[in-house]
Amino acid sequence: MDQEVTNFIQSLDEPWQLQLCNDLRESIHHAIPEVQERMQYKKPHFLKNGKYAAVISTSKKAVSFTIFNTTDLEIPPSFDGPSERKTLKILKDEKPDYDQLISLVQLSSLNL
Predict the structure, then answer these.
(1) Helix 15-31 vs helix 98-108: angle between axes, to the nearest 10 degrees?
(2) Residues 10, 84, 104, 90: what is their CA dihedral angle, to the nearest 10 degrees?
(3) Closest CA relative to residue 44, chosen from 106, 84, 52
(4) What is the pTM of this model?
């Protein structure tokens, strides 16, 4: 795991965002064991074979989780964005379906 990504997550002011980001990060690693991490554009990016697989970003009221390479996938309506990448916006007290996220990240990364 990349230390810059760890530092970013640990620096979050909101405890719920810190926990959620850690859980999302763990889910990505479960979905893609060989995933590479790096900070880019002040956000944790997760790559497979040098190509984007997922991104975590935060705002004051939400954590956004973006999955790339989603054009050929059936994505739940709770995700927004263009066909090639979909974003799930998670608010405080919402709990994402981690099994679903792991499955989507695995499927989206098959061709990377």
Answers:
(1) 50
(2) 40
(3) 52
(4) 0.96
